[in-house]
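Structure request: Proton-conducting transporter membrane subunit, Pseudonocardia eucalypti.
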Amino acid sequence: MGTLVSPLILAPVVLPPLGALGYAVFGWRPATRWLATGSMALVLCTAVTLAAVVARTGPHTVAGGVLRVDALSAYMLVAIGMIALLATAATPAYLTAEITAGRATARTAARHCVLVALFVAAMAAALLAADLGLLWVAIEATTIATAFLVGQRRTRAAVEAAWKYVVICSTGIALALLGSFLLNYAATHAGRPGLNLETLNAIAPHLDTGVTRIAVVLLILGFGTKVGLAPLHAWLPDAHSQAPAPVSALMSGVLLSVAFYAILRVKHLADAAIGPGFARAMLLVMSLTTLAVAATLLLAQRDYKRMLAYSSMEHMGLLAFGAATGTRLAVAALLLHVLGHGLVKAVLFVGSGRILQLTGTSQVHQVRGLAARDPALAGCVGLGVLALLGFPPFSVFASELGLFRAAFTAGLGWPAAVVLLLVLVITAALLAHSAHMLLGNPTPRPAEPVPHTAPTSNLTSPTTRSYAEATPAVPPAERGPLSTIAVLAAGLIACAVLGITTGALQQLLYQAADTITSTP
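Returned structure:
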């Protein structure tokens, strides 16, 4: 079994860069267009196989103790594989439309695919890291890869969003690094220096309480920055709104959840070292603050990609609320929410990218009558919004129901009531904005795109025009690419199936919950 497990654990980290090598050597062309999709399909198959092995035989450690997989990391790998497959399957149609409109080139497309592959590999490495230091390095690597993707269009807004993303996330991750140093200091004085997660959990009762408290605060704040939790959340709406649609799908769908995975590991350690109350209170405050910020900003939101970004903040706030509850049911519901939210956000961000290409604007008030213009796209986006808001039969309904049930059972009645109220406000705002875009008469479009002229700023190249400068000449009767509609439908179907039954995932869900909680 050990001979089989080692390549299975290494595969999610190794396979994406191998796909990236194909783009680096041969570039973006018809023969390589689906290479990234194929490599992500292999990652998903590997993750599912690894999850089955772990569910039967328990955790495994390879590469001299550097990499370790348990039920939690295996489950998260499955989530990465599913959402990365959806995002990369939508990428060829998206990039083809961008190249046709003059906002990208074949070289841009090849670089995009290389960076996405490295991004996915870094996320997989973060989940498989047996050491908190390696986990930190892998999450920082995701920042480097995605910064170039956020600024890919090289417009002033995109470059500004990329720099904002780098500065704020680097500040947060620096806090996490300082917290790691303090945790290593506490472990050294407990007689077991190092940041190996298994070792830290074993010696948790012997860690210095004061030093551990400071370390936990820094670690949760630091990784919480990458999650998009308040107060260091300001990068998220800018980055999500400026990144290419498939990248936004990955960032919202799994990057935020991978960073939250780090918080779950820290909380588990904190509960064993200083008791469950400390991390619970901190996460509860961050959850309520994040939900309040998201609700306030969504009410008057005018940009639909930023609207989806603030919705991501809402759902990360719900994850923090579930982690604060901390029971087995809450963590299982939280993990189901990770997968359901990731699938729906992949659908909605890919759909938003197609809407942007179709209409040439990201402003809610300038988009009208999508149901008449492209019924298939509008239908998928409309169902995606309903799924995101927690309507049955989609899995977000089941996971949110589990989160609230666990909270009331754990005695968190008043925080749960506040969270429910904020969720209702967010639901009303999202429904109003979405109805405006989907219903009514189609918005008139110019008959011809605006002619392109040479850029006057070094932030914009001739091959990276903004949507304000030129809109692709897409006739109102034209329908979206079949591959894009297939991706949207597949994501919605997967989310609906999860809402009806978790099937084989149920055992893995509860095993994953058991790895980071001992509370029934």
